[in-house]
Amino acid sequence: MSEALKNSLLGVIEQIKQKPEAAKAVFRADTELVTNVECRAQIREFPAMTIDEPPILGGTDKGANPVELLLAALGTCQEIMYGAYASVMGVKLDQVKVEVKGYLDLRGLFGMDPSIPSGYSKIQYKTIIKSPADEATLKNLVATVEGHCPVLDTLTRAVEVTGEVSANGKQIH
């Protein structure tokens, strides 16, 4: 458990209490198709990330594909929330690991059957925690994390997603 992490998080909470408008955050990612099914994603000032498909789906396997990144986002968000909440709650964690599986029927992706969704039909995760804390404390931590994980929340409730498309400088959708 990191005292620096705890102090940082409690500092942010205090700032939000003082200025509730500071709680509103906007995250962004800029992406671009490079070639075929290979894309580049730019997030903040990090090096650009390559997203690609495996050869069976026409890619060159230069990076994870978008649906794999979604699974990684869920697993890592859970892990981050465990680290953050454990720090604030004073719970010692020796290990947190999340295994995530997504079930996708490619017939939906390829438009072969309109009754099959193009995305995941089911996502399962298994969280493995190693901690000297008692079971009641860990159950409280689990409930807190699962009740406040942004990615889990986004995946399990209806979220408004809007978009527009422009082609050659003119909005077409």
Question: How does this model look, in words?
Answer:
10% of the residues are buried. The longest helix is centred in the middle third of the chain and has 24 residues, at 66-89. The protein has helices at residues 3-18, 66-89, 106-109, 135-148, 150-156, and strands spanning 30-35, 38-42, 49-51, 95-103, 122-130, 166-167, 170-171. The strands form three sheets. It has a three-stranded antiparallel beta sheet with strand order 1-2-3, with no helix packed on it. Strands 4-5 form a two-stranded antiparallel ribbon. It is globular, with a radius of gyration of 20 Å. α1 crosses α2 (66-89) and α2 (66-89) packs across α4. It has two domains: 24-63; 65-157, K homology (KH) domain (GMP Synthetase, Chain A, domain 3), CATH 3.30.300. By secondary structure, the protein is α+β, with helices and mostly antiparallel strands.
Secondary-structure topology with pairs:
Elements: H1 3-18, E1 30-35, E2 38-42, E3 49-51, H2 66-89, E4 95-103, H3 106-109, E5 122-130, H4 135-148, H5 150-156, E6 166-167, E7 170-171
Antiparallel strand pairs: 1-2, 2-3, 4-5, 6-7
CATH superfamily heading of the largest domain: K homology (KH) domain
Q: Could you say how many structural domains there are in total?
A: 2
- Order of helix and strand elements from N to C terminus: HEEEHEHEHHEE
Give helix % range: 25-40%
Please give the count of helices: 5
CATH topology description of the largest domain: GMP Synthetase, Chain A, domain 3
Number of strands: 7
What's the overall average pLDDT, rounded? 96
**Order of strands in the sheet with most strands:** 1-2-3
Instruction: Give the termini distance in whole angstroms.
Output: 49 Å
Structural class call reads alpha+beta
List segments where confidence is low: pLDDT < 50 over at least 5 consecutive residues: none
Q: Could you say what the CATH architecture of the largest domain is? A: 2-Layer Sandwich
